[in-house]
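OP here, attaching both records as promised.
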Amino acid sequence: MAFGVYIHFPYCLSKCPYCDFASRAEKVIPQRRYTEAVLRELETRASEFAGREAVSIYIGGGTPSLWDPPLFAQVVREVRSLWRVRDDAEITLEANPGTTDEERFAAFREAGANRISIGVQSFAPAQLISLGRKHSPGDAVHAFETARRAGFRNTSLDLIHGVERQTRQLAARDAASAVALGPEHISCYALTLTGLAEEVPMAKAWQRGEIELPDDESAAEMGESVRAELVKGGYARYEISNYARKGFESVHNTLYWRGGEYAAAGCGACGFRRGRRYANDRSPERYMERVEQTGKGEASFEEITSEQHLRERLFTGLRLAQGVDLDSLSTDLDIPVRSRFVNEIAQIVRDGLGELEGSVLRLNDRGLDLHSEVSLRFF
């Protein structure tokens, strides 16, 4: 089973109004104390994932490009000392435009990062303002070019559509602007405010009717226009919201979608070992205190039964264009998947939402667009 390591850096220069991640805007970041906490937690967690070989290390946030490069390097070295790391392992660093320069990018590259994910979100000034982003379109282009000069040959750009006052044409223009830069990977997410924590400002403003977002039909049309631009640019849709040139699909995220295991360290980080999922405290201060007292930042955990794991594997696996190999899943979980869900599978095919080829069930573009509705049939 594939194994990865996730590390969360929660600090930002400012908190985006739509963000529900464990992040905190701080003028002064406790770099050393936070790093020591992460190092200690990694060491404590190592015994729970003994003997694994990591195919990926992902440093997310927050804004991990604010981490002092020497401390970042120390964390990567610690991961390598605790687990075997494949020679071709994907090591991703998330970055925001305007939070780094060529010297810092080069330092992160020297420390072992070989993939960078830049949170562009939009190339349109009005959309950036709506999203509360502090960078300009020029900052985004500069960040990409700086990453290239620093030696990154695997770069991803994040985009968001369905923003206030955005049109189908503007969403397509964002996608075309990303394609023009030529990254290896592009993520395109629809802005979602439902189900977020109560303290998320944009979600509160939307519920109060203070902002108006495109309706579902308009957002779906934006998604179609974005997809058309990306496909025209040579990017294949390999997951609901993710597109890549051949061979540059995200290893770490695919590990999640395929039900792999992952050790996690850092404020708000979630880890998974077959049968158990844990979540760390979302408060940086409480997280550091927990680790200093116990060696772990864990605030909650959940025992995952085989039945829960089966449904999670179906739900996440069907996000992928490659679909789910039902026979392999049956062997892995010792559950007769195809016979149990024969009616649901047949209905998906009859409804023109996907196909069953041999033992592989995969959704088509329409099915991927309706993924949640389709997947819930298995629940």
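Record two, same layout:
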Amino acid sequence: MDLLRALLEWVVSLIGPLVAPDWAALIRLIPIGVLLLVASFYGWVLLRYRRAGTRRVGHPPRAPRAPAGIHLPGPSLAPFLISAAAAALFFSAALGGIALLVAALFLVFALIAWGREAVHEYDALGGVQSQALIAADAANSTELLTPAGPPDGVHLPPPSLLPFLVSLGAAVMLFGAAIGLSFVLLGALMTVLALIGWLIDSGREYRAVAEADATGHLVSPAPKRAPQFVIALMSLLFVVVGGAQAGFFASSDVSPSPSPSGSTCVADATGVLTVCAELVAFSVPTIEIAAGAPTKIRFVNYDAGVPHNIAIYEGSADASGTQIFNGEIFAGVDERTYDIPALNAGATYAFLCLVHPNMVGTVVVQ
């Protein structure tokens, strides 16, 4: 009987993790699983490459040559650089600070490099196209031509910055959803202007195709110059709005906030527990609250125009549970006094900002 019971316990211990798995532990293994999957894929690609056809050993490689009339774009590192920059941007999102800025600049420069290559490719196809050998006599003669545009019936849309500008405007608008209404309006304006420009370009493309139906020869529209004035204006507005949000352009007649440097959070004169928010961060990582009795928290938001609040949850900052308190969300520079309900001693609580989930802290109940 003891042997049977031991065997049954052994079987239960084996199938237990499958019936009721530890989800937190499994979630922590997801990055390792993704890394193994990516490494396996590259290993498979390398294996297929090694087995792909016979290799010429001891013979100089022959330079590839495109067929007559066919243009082959040159090799480019731009796709690899953009992928590396995007990966660096995702990883730096967890590090923050200067790492995030460097990764973002890396991605922008990689996109600009790819855009320049696309413009060069368009010039090569539309202006200085590869020389094409065309049979002038079926028996023994050829004629060397350098066409000044694409072949008849082939339409090449000119390169355009508008898709990138539309994406940039949408990104600013979504960024404003977490920062403030000013950025939402600026992003909406950028998106609308880019979409209008894209619509105008689409009209030019349509008229070119309609003309080709009438004449029998399709001519690609000339590429438009980049809207440098609009880009400069939107960049200036972004800097001005961001500076206003950060309080850089505050009038000298207005008295400064109690914490202009971000290093001091002025406490309440009556002894009420004070928590401040500045530069999208709480002033303290931990707050102490007496157990078994309601209490007050004075919350000061020093981020001008940026909304914050304090919400309290059961559990830790990494795995919060039931919401205990949800304070009013308001933009700075301003303050509110929250009435916190009684909390139980010995339990674990966390406080955070519902607008910015990276702003977290621990509540100690004594």
